[in-house]
Amino acid sequence: MASPSTQHTERYFVPAPSAWPFLLTVGLVTLVIGVAGYLEDSNIGPAPVIIGAALAIFIIFRWFQGIVRESESGLYGTQVDRTYRWAMSWFIFSEVMFFAAFFGALYYARLLSVPWLAGEGSKLATHLTWWPDFEATWPTGGPAGLGGPFETIPAFDVPLLNTLILLSSGFTITMAHHALKDDKRRNCVLWMWATVALGCAFLYFQAEEYIHAYTDLNLTLGSGIYGSTFFMLTGFHGMHVTLGTLMLIVITLRLMKGHFKPESHFGFEGVAWYWHFVDVVWIGLFIVVYWL
Amino acid sequence: MAKHGWRGGWFGTRPAKLAAGAALALAALSAHAYTQSSGGYNTPVGVTEISREVYGLHMLIYWVCVVIGVLVFGTMIYSIIFHRRSKNPKPADFHESTTVEIIWTAIPFVILIAMAVPAAATLIRMEDTRNADMSVKITGYQWKWEYEYLGEDLRFFSTLTPELNKARQLRSGVDVTQVPNYLVDVDNPLVLPVGKKVRFLVTSNDVIHSWWVPEIAVKKDAIPGYVNEVWTRIDEPGTYRGVCAELCGRDHGYMPIVLKAVPEAEFEAWLAQQKGQEVASAAPVTATDVPVAAAAPAEPAPEQQMAAAEPAESESAGLSKDELMAKGESVYKANCMACHQANGAGLPPSFPSLVGSAVVKGPADAQIAQVLKGKNLMPPFAQLSDPDIAAVITYTRNAWGNDAGVVQPAQVAAQR
Amino acid sequence: MAHQETHADHGHDDHAHHGPEKGIMRWIKTTNHKDLGTLYLFFAFTMFFIGGLMSLVIRAELFVPGLQFVDPEFFNQMTTLHALVMIFGGVMPAFVGLANWMVPMMIGCSDLALPRVNNWGFWILPFAFGLLLSTLFMDGGAPAGGWTMYPPLVLQTGNAFPFLIFAVHLMGISSITGAINVVVTILNMRAPGMTLLKMPLFVWTWLITAYLLIAVMPVLAGAVTMLLTDKYFGTSFFTASGGGDPVMFQHIFWFFGHPEVYIMILPAFGIVSTIIPTFARKALFGYDSMVYATASIAFLSFIVWAHHMFTVGMPLAGELFFMFATMLIAVPTGVKVFNWVATMWRGSITFETPMLFALGFVFLFTIGGFSGLMLAVTPVDFQYHDTYFVVAHFHYVLVPGAVFSIIAAVYYWIPKWTGRMYNEFWGKVHFWLSAIFINITFFPQHFAGLAGMQRRVPDYAVQFTDWNVMSSVGAFGFFIAQFIFIFNMLASCFGWFGRRQDLPDRVWEGAHGLEWTVPSPAPYHTFEDPPRIGEGELTAVHDEVDALDHHRLA
Ligand code: HEA
Ligand code: HEA
Ligand code: CUA
Ligand SMILES: [Cu+2]
Asked: Which of residues 166-195 of C touch A (CB under 8 A)?
């Protein structure tokens, strides 16, 4: 039978009414209108993009500031903590599915469409009618060799280096976590800066690679299906690393301000999870995009 | 023609008629359904072994559903009637029974297996395109079909007839119920021999289309850059109609298919005579001397020309303005009028006016490029011959008070 | 739906306890699940109306053969927007609104887990659809490539194109945040004693729906992103000459698209499973198998997507696999239908409006399911595909399916929301008109489709006239009938016609569940101190449930 819960449960924290979400939406929408205008080269100029982005970033900043304040002033009980854990896990799951779409495209291109265009499977007629002298190779710019001939980036070169960098960053952040748990703040902060540094190093090499690809290798977004999948996958991953690095920096600064307790520090763990996710995605990239 | 009088009656859509409802409708419909053997309300039985099998499967699964439906709905109606509170004030209180639940999980499962087996068998037969007697390559364009008899160097376009094209315009003022074969008639039908296994190679030149003739139970998507294979063997001579079944833009509803199945001898004759045309039409032709087309349209069907006459024409550089204007007008009617309208005013915003338009007044090369490549909603017209494109561009640059000079086939050729 | 401000600050004045703000700001800034539920429902309502108007443009043009009113291009724009508005603006937000209102009250918690995110998820929607609908006024008009957005056709869209893509992205963000919120709430906020297998089925179906949403909305986002780069950044995902394949888009789209259609029906199953027991005065038959059936439908929905693509020329093995997998879905769905019938069996049934719509759902959804099963048979689908038979199929599952369930839910819970009973007579009138007209609208489309009328055309061969005349008449009738509903509901919201707030907590004497243990109208804050649920209260027979009286909770 139901009865008022006798044992003391602290109430679940319900935030006060807030204008952040609404303003964030306004910012985002202004931003996309600006981008859309740019894509359809209408003459609305960069104003909406700048204003929108600025507003969005500002609000996100304020929003998280608020969350930090609430959390530090002890409004979040264990149940709220669990909420954030669940929410972060599901959010990462949705990110995984987003990458899945592009990995799926890569899979489809390599195992289905390219061989088909070369006449394999049930698609001989396709080959003979449209692309008689196309052979299935990977990498490929497609039957029409879109984007012209290009070279690819060897896996066991910078990409390998980047792999090592990300792996070790996974290690450093774990060390930081342990340090935080046994309340060794200085070490923790040091490990965190190390992680940040590794993240930046990764981004630096990635940028180098892109420049190299565009200038020397003639490998571009337009280089047929190879260029498309290569840049979409690595590009979106790069964006996630950038985001992750920013999050790491924020967390580190918070650590330096003395935030988080050895026993409860989900802000830290959430970012760590995210970083590991970015890490794992890269392993996938390294194997199927660069290596195989 | 009873049907027309009857139709006419419909047009007032008198409520009485409406009330008369399906029964009446079916009776009259079956008379002139474009899918004859459909009776106007069902999947056509069709004229091939496969189409009959498909029809069989269709009816089988249909009856399976009907029977299950009767049982399920019957039970529901029973308890709605007899287990209402007035009849049954005290509800029973059972709320599970593993045995029952296992049974009604198992039975549908079995039914489905029984359904899947014959379906799979038919499907496997449908997909077997091996050792065909002849092959026809079908290419979809926005918005027409091109047929190429492989190995016979015969290829031609098949387009909605000019009459229908006129009748189907917005508020054309034509009573379409009086137009025979409204929306399902073409200038040049696909002609095939009965009794032969014909393999179709279906592909597309621009967006995805889908080649569908219900009477032979063939529907295959036409995918740009890819070729799909499908086959048929038609038993009975006759005219079988179909439509494009994949949304392909503005005139998706106006690219029908007409398939004429004829005895083999007749087919051979037709083929020979068509090839005759090919030779004869080395000089610029008008559709009128193409028998198939002559049947329907009085106006020229330009696709016919370019299909046949390309080589000869592209040599004949330097046409006079009048030549170009005359030719251009017919090309315009057949290819551009649907969107840009006869008076060139277009239908803004989707279809810009050509009267004094920047593109038309601007540099010729830009306009040629746009006609060849297309832009947004405007499909590419690269399939037209250089002279046709030169002509139609000249026409747009000089009709409706425009005055932007002449374009020669050579200029077009230069941009290909 | 105007909550009583009086209720707003009953209980304890601790800092985490907020009454609503005043005026418009209440709705812009609210973090309250009831306010947001209300916003979602009014938004969905508006979208249903707009989408309905678009469908009337379609039906008006198709009334008789010949092109009378609109240019074919504009017709295609209507078809495309109609679908996007109805699916992403109508059905999905309506279900999210119902989840907002009911899930916390059903599992006994004070609000959704992430109230601010909840607010964000809602406010994205009006902007997203503002973007989408604004394309109607752009050069080249609105997107006209069908809601399935197949390339290369969709790449011919004019200035509207990026707005379409970004609108879809925004809807995706909204759905994902909403879904995460629901999942977390259900997994983390259940009242003590509310074990998973005690949760009301509406909560269960929403849990699984939310999981589907989180799994597939990002995939849609990825797909449209590739469209964007193909059009503007020279990628060639969907271009053969670059080694891509237009059909690849269809695979990715339908990997989202098929689960999407179950996203639009699972919550409906939950609603029907809640309403039928109430008015049959008998516990739901086979609660557990209902849960398992829902789960297996969700699982299967990931491996059947290519049944939308039987004609693209897949390898034979693929066609066979997707045929078998698709047919399988009939089994768990059948279990649900049978369980509903068994629940009614030897019950003590009354036929208030929510029950009428629930029963209408069971009949008409099943018909739509049958046609779905027919479509699953690959060789026959070659005949059905892209004809009005398909249009008839999915409208049967969507309109008398999803939409009827939403209407039923609103009738069922509006007394709890507003404290005012709707008008039963007009409710019944609304049901019968809707049920009759919806069949007049969509049943003839089966025949038109079978006889060869293809989809997405503004005009048709004369032979199809009769079917289309009926369909159009039905469509207008159905649309008009909805005004009865709108007025009936608004009257309860705003107390028109002197409707009083004089309802008991348990509005329906046969109803079970925690939401019936709080006052009507439900106070602005409910279950801030979670109730405790003991053995078998939620599925058990009535008098036990009375033990959950809110007086003892307060
Ligand atoms: C709410 C939405 C919804 C739902 C629930 C369904 C349910 C089903 N759908 Fe439907 N479908 C759509 C929405 C939906 N569909 C939409 C929107 C499209 C078109 C998209 C577009 O192209 O624009 C579509 C298209 C579509 C196609 C593609 C048609 C084509 O384009 O060629 C197919 C093919 O297999 C299909 C199959 C099914 C099946 C097998 C089910 C099954 O889940 C049905 C199962 C239910 C039953 C079978 C009835 C009850 C069961 C019993 C009483 C048990 C006993 C019964 C038997 C054993 C027969 N659907
Ligand atoms: C949920 C989805 C949904 C809904 C509700 C509808 C509703 C209707 N649809 Fe829809 N339709 C689609 C989804 C939907 N449709 C899709 C996906 C397509 C395919 C598009 C494509 O090919 O790309 C389509 C295509 C489509 C076509 C084919 C167009 C073509 O192929 O060219 C037609 C033609 O008759 C049509 C007609 C109608 C009609 C008359 C209704 C009427 O039912 C409209 C009247 C309904 C209302 C007025 C809403 C009433 C609801 C309420 C009042 C609920 C209250 C709400 C709350 C309380 C929150 N639709
Ligand atoms: Cu071609 Cu539709
Ligand atoms: Cu499906």
From this structure: 166, 169-170, 176, 179-181, 183-184, 187-189, 191-193
Q: Is B261 helix (H, G, I), strand (E, B) or coil?
A: strand
Nearest to C312 by CA among C454, C451, C153, C150: C150
Which residues neighbour B70 within 8 Å (Cβ) at sequence distance 6 or greater?
none
Residue C12 has pLDDT above 60, yes or no: no
- In whole angstroms, what separates CA A158 from the centre of its chain? 20
Pairing mode, if any, of strands B228-233 and B197-204? antiparallel
Q: What predicted TM-score, i.e. pTM, was given to this entire model?
A: 0.89
Peptide bond into B143 cis (omega under 30): yes
Q: Side chain identity at C132, as an amino acid letter?
A: L
A223 with A146: CB under 8 angstroms?
yes
Phi, psi of B363 (to 5 degrees): -60, 135
Q: Is C385 an active-site residue?
A: no
Q: Which residues pair with B190 in a beta bridge?
A: B259
Contact assessment for residue A228 and residue C236, using Cβ atoms and an 8 Å cutoff? yes
Mean pLDDT of A143-158: 88
Name chain A contacts of C174, Cβ cutoff 8 Å. none
pLDDT (tens digit, 9 = 90+) per residue, C157-197? 988 999 999 999 999 999 999 999 999 999 999 988 888 88
Catalytic residue, candidates C308, C393, C506, C512: C308
Contact (CB, 8 A) for C174 and C154? no
Q: How many CA atoms lie within 13 A of B3 on its CB side?
A: 18
Neighbours of C500 (CB within 10 A): 9
Nearest to C86 by CA among C122, C124, C56: C56
C-alpha to C-alpha distances, C512 to B290, C255, C508, nearest whole angstrom? 78, 37, 9
Question: Does the CB atom of residue B252 touch ligand 3 within 6 A?
Answer: yes
Residue C282 annotated among the catalytic residues of the structure: no
Please indicate whether residue B255, judged by its CB atom, sits closer than 6 Å to ligand 3. yes
* Pick from C273, C347, A174: nearest CA to B90: C347
Distance C281 CA to ligand 2 centre (A): 34
Q: Of C167, C202, C198, give the one whose Cα is nearest residue C182.
A: C202
Ligand nearest to the CA of C367: 1
- Side chain identity at B378, as an amino acid letter? M
Q: Which residue of B has its CA nearest to C139?
A: B349
Give percent above pLDDT 90 in chain B: 43
Q: Where does residue C23 fall: left (phi above 0), alpha (psi -120 to 50 degrees), or beta otherwise?
A: left
Would you place residue C535 in the very low, low, confident or very high pLDDT band (cuts 50, 70, 90)? low
Minimal C-alpha gap between B138 and chain A (Å): 12
Check: CB of residue B383 under 8 Å from CB of residue B389.
Answer: no
In the complex, which subunits touch B with 3 or more CB pairs below 8 angstroms?
A: A, C
The ipTM (two decimal places) reads 0.91
Atom 49 (ligand 1) nearest CA: C369
